[in-house]
Here is the input.
Amino acid sequence: MGEFELIERYFAHVGARREDVVLGIGDDAALLRVPPGHEIVACVDTLVDGHHFPQGSHADDIGWRALAVNLSDIAAMGARPAFATLALTLPEADEDWLEGFVAGFAAIATAHGVALVGGDTTKGPLTISVQVIGHVESGTALRRSTARPGDLLYVTGWPGDAAAGLALLQGRLQGQGANRGALEQKFRRPEPRVAFGQRLRGIASACIDVSDGLAADLGRMVAASGAGAVVRAAELPLSRALYALAGEAGARALALSGGDDYELLFTVPPGARAALVALAASAGAPACHCIGEVVAGRGVRVLAERGELPVPRGWDHFRA
Here is the structure.
């Protein structure tokens, strides 16, 4: 099977059918429409076999994950995803693997109304780069640089679950049964908070997605905002599955340092708290937990009952 046959067979019609795709896969570039009064939001992520997912991972999980991590970036901006491009480097044109990958990619693309509009295929070590393009009403995008002292700090979902799932897959954490299955699923199939991110516009003052660890990503947000943050360790949300398999201290450490959650970490001015409570109580909203506040100064502090905890640095590809 040649490159262009591969593209036509597996990728020519992946994802949602959108009227704003003037010209999609099959030409030198895509032609896309953006609604009047909107700004373009674009992001790209690369996944490398053995670095971003364990070698031997199911192809459908890889396909889902490749798009999900980008959708999480779009969610953190409060934007609507619309289009994706895919650059896929393969050791060989394995038809069974391709069918699984496309199934996972197409499932999450269709769920979020994303059309695959272009890309590239090459031969080499398994590497997947996805770009997502979306849009947001002009002047309304959420940013990481706009948190202010006095803002309350919230996180969606259950941080640490995905890192525990990866640890289970790699044999660094032990456990069986429903708890193991729930945590592994959080790593294999992250659920980007796209709809909730859009609804946070006008409520949240700043936002970032949790990809490299809660403490590390919080540090990036408050550094960009010229502020500091205090996290109350006792308020960190720990899922029952995580607590059961890692214990309190282990679960807390994973919640602070574990990456791959793709939850939203955001700040809310005190005057907007009631609006957030109403939003969180609405249908389809994820669990939201207040874990601290933004303060004057610099850096992140984690306060426990008996003093401060060390602040983990989080994931960095190039740190020794």
Observations:
- Residues 3-137 form a domain with the 60s Ribosomal Protein L30; Chain: A; fold (CATH 3.30.1330.10).
- The longest strand covers residues 38-48.
